[in-house]
């Protein structure tokens, strides 16, 4: 008997040791020692938004999806080599953002924080708090702050935050320009119900010079950009009934309760409306909300695009609930006394809901959305469907829209697809080949977040975890760069926490990730100490081996200048857009050059030679600029090969 117990004990110890060893093996990522330059090339004319003194250019993330068009595209490059630098405000659950100004300062609005603040600004160098704006306890958050240029003070920018009852315009130093009432009254939470008072973030309407806000209950308001004065003659609520909610994929009640407790331990909760995970589940699965996404404004026409629920009767069952989703095109129409009213110009309904913010092509002639059934849907600006492509399962986030090559990127909860818009049809070009971690016994590599198009590839948040069908529970998290041409992983760095915001990159080439673990909260609730503790706030992944970033910025600038040169006569607007893009990259190359020198990678002679060549580039002399940039790309490629 003792021998049997000894054998059983030995087997148990051995199994535990094997389990620990296997767990360590599965959590150890592949090393990408020599990240290469992508072979992707821009082809033909590119789409470009109109120039505007307030909107500026997409040189940084000015809103949750980069711009008011929600393209998730920035003109800068992201570093192919990064490392975790700092984590700031770890007690704050941050579901959206951050936004970043041209100097790299960071702005975000936490969701139901224990501290009574509605907006926080961080120093990019160390993550220290620069300032914070006070607000009501347990604020429902104002989404991602909007960063706009200040045409009255060239070189300066203004940050706008919209809440339910309140909206603010704040200078970069934290001084308040205006702080006004939106005219709305936040409803009191009912026992056992979520507090439906979240604002998805401010946006900008150029034609009326107005700041817009959209609430989870469908209320929409507009304020004068300069004064905060209300611009609408009458209240406007997006059509649609509260969502009926989907049971498909929704965690069991016992697991929701357990995950609520896990998140409470990490972030606290609103005593009047407890259940942090329950609230998010209502948004994700449509439980009683009308709007679950940010919205888009076309800078070309001023048309406003909102994904929401359809009217009650659209699903043929009149029960006060919406079983279908809808996309609304809304126009701002002049009314009396210099004010406006909002009118629905067009609408379209689709089965189930939508997890995506409407995303616009730069020329405003395409709108991209998704439904619950795995379709990426392309529509014209009157909401006539042009084509749809099915990626096999639900697309839970916004479509990424590139201004070059008619390329789109759509995610599922586990993968990422590149899709080509051929005008009358869409085509899946590739599914990303994610190979960061070993895969076995149901353990899989995962895409974790909306992709961002950068000048040198696709910035992504990746990870690994357990998969069963379409249910995926992440264990490991990190950031990476994909080759835009092939979908292969160029580089990957282990991270600390999941996000449901966007893959935010900064003007320095680093990543700035808002921590908002949803799936990892479930993993933590289920697996306990096998999953690392939850954390909040913002993490910075700083560029390292900055000569690689400099190489990528210069090679990307070379591609745009070559394209600009080829189109100078045939497509002057596209050519100029490529020149603007190259100018942004050349400025970023100078930043990377300084950082590479501080790292000791470049010696004084290399620094002097490269600096002189960079300084001499003048993009108004297009042919010479193209030749010089190509030479610098080649030089940095050689340096990178030897390092």
From TrEMBL:
<protein>
    <submittedName>
        <fullName>PQQ enzyme repeat protein</fullName>
    </submittedName>
</protein>
<dbReference type="InterPro" id="IPR002372">
    <property type="entry name" value="PQQ_rpt_dom"/>
</dbReference>
<dbReference type="InterPro" id="IPR015943">
    <property type="entry name" value="WD40/YVTN_repeat-like_dom_sf"/>
</dbReference>
<dbReference type="InterPro" id="IPR018391">
    <property type="entry name" value="PQQ_b-propeller_rpt"/>
</dbReference>
<dbReference type="InterPro" id="IPR011047">
    <property type="entry name" value="Quinoprotein_ADH-like_sf"/>
</dbReference>
<feature type="domain" description="Pyrrolo-quinoline quinone repeat">
    <location>
        <begin position="324"/>
        <end position="494"/>
    </location>
</feature>
<dbReference type="Pfam" id="PF13360">
    <property type="entry name" value="PQQ_2"/>
</dbReference>
């Amino acid at each position: 008997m003792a021998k049997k117990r000894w054998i059983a004990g030995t087997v148990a110890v051995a199994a535990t040791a094997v389990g620990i060893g296997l767990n360590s093996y599965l959590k150890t990522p592949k090393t990408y020692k020599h990240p290469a330059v992508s072979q992707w090339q821009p082809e033909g004319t590119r789409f470009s938004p109109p120039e505007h003194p307030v909107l500026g250019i997409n040189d940084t993330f000015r809103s949750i999806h980069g711009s008011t068009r929600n393209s998730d595209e920035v003109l800068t490059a992201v570093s192919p080599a990064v490392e975790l630098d700092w984590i700031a405000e770890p007690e704050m659950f941050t579901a959206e953002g951050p936004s970043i100004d041209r100097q790299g300062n960071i702005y975000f609005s936490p969701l139901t924080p224990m501290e009574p603040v509605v907006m926080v600004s961080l120093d990019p160098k160390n993550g220290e708090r620069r300032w914070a704006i006070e607000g009501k306890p347990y604020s429902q958050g104002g989404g991602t702050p909007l960063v706009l240029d200040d045409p009255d003070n060239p070189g300066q920018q203004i940050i706008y935050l919209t809440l339910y009852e309140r909206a603010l315009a704040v200078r970069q130093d934290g001084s308040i320009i205006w702080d006004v009432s939106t005219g709305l009254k936040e409803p009191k939470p009912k026992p056992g119900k979520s507090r439906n008072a979240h604002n998805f973030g401010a946006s900008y309407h150029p034609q009326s010079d107005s700041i817009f806000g959209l609430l989870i209950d469908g209320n929409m308001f507009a304020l004068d950009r300069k004064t905060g004065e209300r611009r609408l003659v009458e209240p406007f609520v997006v059509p649609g009934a509260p969502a009926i909610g989907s049971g498909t994929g929704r965690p069991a009640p016992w697991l929701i309760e357990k995950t609520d407790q896990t998140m409470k331990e990490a972030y606290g909760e609103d005593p009047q409306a407890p259940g942090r995970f329950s609230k998010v589940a209502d948004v994700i699965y449509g439980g009683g909300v009308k709007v679950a996404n940010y919205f888009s404004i076309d800078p070309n026409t001023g048309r406003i695009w909102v994904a929401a629920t359809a009217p009650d009767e659209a699903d043929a069952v009149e029960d006060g609930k919406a079983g279908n989703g809808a996309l609304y095109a809304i126009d701002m129409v002049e009314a009396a006394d210099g004010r406006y009213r909002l009118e629905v110009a067009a609408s379209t309904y689709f089965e189930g809901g939508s997890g995506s913010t409407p995303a616009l092509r730069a020329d405003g002639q395409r709108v991209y959305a998704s439904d619950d059934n795995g379709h990426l849907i392309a529509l014209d600006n009157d909401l006539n469907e042009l084509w749809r492509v099915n990626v096999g399962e639900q697309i839970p986030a916004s479509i990424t829209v590139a201004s070059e090559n008619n390329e789109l990127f759509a995610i599922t909860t586990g993968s990422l697809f590149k899709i080509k818009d051929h005008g009358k049809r869409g085509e899946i070009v590739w599914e990303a080949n994610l190979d960061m971690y070993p895969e076995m016994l149901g353990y899989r590599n995962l895409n974790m977040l909306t992709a961002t198009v950068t000048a040198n590839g696709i910035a992504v948040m990746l990870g690994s975890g357990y998969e069963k069908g379409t249910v995926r529970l992440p264990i490991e998290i990190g950031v990476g760069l994909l080759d835009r041409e092939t979908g292969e992983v160029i580089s990957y760095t282990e991270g600390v926490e999941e996000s449901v915001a966007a893959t935010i990159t900064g003007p320095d080439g680093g990543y700035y990730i808002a921590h908002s673990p949803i799936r990892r909260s479930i993993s933590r609730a289920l697996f306990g100490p096998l999953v690392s503790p939850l954390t909040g706030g913002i993490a910075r992944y700083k560029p390292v081996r900055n000569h690689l970033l400099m190489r990528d910025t210069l090679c990307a600038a070379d591609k745009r200048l070559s394209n600009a040169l080829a189109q100078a006569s045939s497509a002057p607007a596209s050519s100029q857009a490529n020149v603007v893009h190259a100018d942004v990259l050349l400025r970023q190359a100078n930043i990377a050059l300084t950082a590479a020198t501080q790292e000791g990678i470049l010696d004084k002679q290399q620094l002097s030679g490269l600096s002189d060549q960079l300084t001499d580039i003048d993009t108004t002399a297009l042919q010479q600029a193209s030749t010089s940039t190509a030479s610098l790309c080649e030089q940095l490629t050689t340096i990178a090969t030897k390092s």
